[in-house]
Amino acid sequence: MTNEVVIKTDKLTKRFGDFTAVDEVTFEVYAGEIFGFLGANGAGKTTAMKMLCGLSMPTSGTATIAGYDIYMQTEAIKKNIGYMSQKFSLYEDLTVMENINFFGGIYGLSDKQLKIKSQELIEMLGLKSQAKKVVASLPLGWKQKLAFSVAVLHEPKIVFLDEPTGGVDPVTRRQFWDLIYSAAGRGITIFVTTHYMDEAEYCNRISMMVDGVIKALDTPANLQQHYSATSMDDVFYALARGAKRKSD
């Protein structure tokens, strides 16, 4: 992790009619950092991520991603990021290798680069015997690991992961995080949303959202110390109780 800021937001807001999904969130993320964006389902995590990826226009506020403005330079942003949706983001009716080649072409890799990268990816994931099988035939855990590997195939500056480990078993979740650590070690910034509080322990820093508002932002250790908590679940419950008292 370095001191270079690659994500910067200032009072970023998204409203749908009278409903405010994301309410004036302000934070910075550094190059090579694993930044957790935590909160319960419906807290506004996915909405915020879509704005940062250039997939949804903010109602107000500002943000830059890899130095590019989210209002004026959305295409430049898309070329410098990877993205993995919580709803599996590869084509299930294509083979493993066809998916790799397809997305590698979209990311602008040359034929030579794609040949090298695809072989490295297949070997790293242990999918050599599965390379010609359609993705639909793979177990969910393998699909998720493949989707992540394809999202960073072009070595983007930032990869956005939206609930990437949802529905997979604990062992597969740990293996998935090994892939995240490897990418971060290569200098890729990881921005990950999750509602699994134990995954906060794997992040350099985390922000915790409650009802569209960032209620806390710090390292997991500092947050636990501040709230005299023994787990991130305890921290989140303390924040949620505080938010409820405030609204009352």
Record keyword descriptors for this entry.
P-loop_NTPase; Rossmann fold; 6-stranded mixed beta sheet; ATP hydrolysis activity; 37% helix; single chain; ATP binding; nucleotide-binding; 248 residues; 10 strands; ATP-binding; alpha/beta; 4-stranded antiparallel beta sheet
What does this molecule look like?
This protein has a single domain (about 5-245), classed as Rossmann fold. It has helices at about 45-50, 75-80, 95-105, 110-125, 140-150, 170-185, 220-225, 230-245, and strands spanning about 5-15, 20-30, 35-40, 60-65, 70, 80-85, 160, 190-195, 205-210, 215-220. The protein is globular, with a radius of gyration of 18 Å. Strand 1 (about 5-15) and strand 2 form a beta hairpin. Helix 3 (about 95-105) crosses helix 4 and helix 5 packs parallel to helix 6 (about 170-185). The strands form 2 sheets. A 6-stranded mixed beta sheet has the order 6-7-8-3-9-10, sandwiched between helices. Strands 2-1-4-5 form a 4-stranded antiparallel beta sheet. With about 250 residues, it is of the alpha/beta class. The protein starts with a strand and ends with a helix. Mean pLDDT is about 90; it is low at about 245-248. The longest helix is centred in the C-terminal third of the chain and has 16 residues, at about 170-185. The protein has 8 helices and 10 strands.
